[in-house]
Amino acid sequence: PGCFTGDEKINLADGTIISFKETVERFEGKEFKVKSFDIKNKKEVIGTARNPRKTKSVKELQKISVKDPSG
Predict the structure, then answer these.
(1) Concatenated DSSP letters for 26-45?
(2) Do 32 and 12 touch, CB atoms closer than 8 A?
(3) Which positions ≥6 away from 30 have C-beta within 8 Å?
(4) What is the pLDDT of residues 12-54, one digit of tens each?
(5) For residues 38 and 42, what is the distance between their CA atoms, to the nearest angstrom?
(6) Quick one: pLDDT at residue 71?
(7) Across the chain, where does the E strand assignment appear?
(8) Higher-confidence residue: 46 or 66?
């Protein structure tokens, strides 16, 4: 819970890209199709997302940057 910010982009199966906040407004309590990535088969697939919702609010976010160790 609390993994996304409202402005996080979600790729819907029909090619539409909307914010996580908008998914909550449009699909709360519902199932909907999204583009996903199948790691095992290394390809894009269509998946089912369920009941997007706001679970908590925070006053401050921390930005974390990760450097590729290979240079």
Answers:
(1) HHTTSEEEEEEEETTTTEEE
(2) yes
(3) 50, 51
(4) 999 999 999 999 999 999 999 999 999 999 999 999 999 998 8
(5) 5
(6) 64
(7) 9-11, 17-19, 31-38, 43-50
(8) 46
pLDDT at 31: 96
**For the whole model, what pTM was predicted?**
0.71
User: What are the φ and ψ backbone dihedral angles of 43, each rounded to 5 degrees?
Assistant: -150, 155
State the Cα–Cα distance between residues 71 and 41, nearest whole angstrom. 28
Contact residues for 16 (Cβ-Cβ < 8 A; gap 6+): none
Backbone region of residue 29 per phi and psi (left: phi > 0; alpha: psi in -120 to 50; beta: other values): left
User: 45 and 53 in contact (C-beta within 8 Å)?
Assistant: no
Which residue type, as a one-letter code, is found at position 4? F
Residue 25 phi, psi (nearest 5):
-65, -40
